[in-house]
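Memo to structure team: turn this sequence into structure tokens by end of day. - J.P.
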Amino acid sequence: MSNVSIRAAFDTERTVTAPFTGVYQTVGSVLTENPVILIFDNQSDVDVAISVDGTNAWKTFQAGEGLVLDMRGNHGIASNFTIVVGTQFYVLGAAGTGIFSIAILYAR
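Reply from structure team:
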């Protein structure tokens, strides 16, 4: 039996800075790795909706709200449950101050 070591790696944080424009804005660049853990963090003073197609909201984050999305459910071996490389995140908000960020960890 082999001892396979999987290590966590930190991807570049993706952000968009308020004031938000009232239309969908990209949050950083597209995914270049399959994320294991994503941390969505609305550090602004307004509600912000997030989308993966720039048209339909997936979730709305209240001002100051965050979410840790564990794609492997703390199990560690569900390598087939992730978000596709090339996915672009978008946010929709109006005015405000602060930022919306997405921090990503992936396995290598």
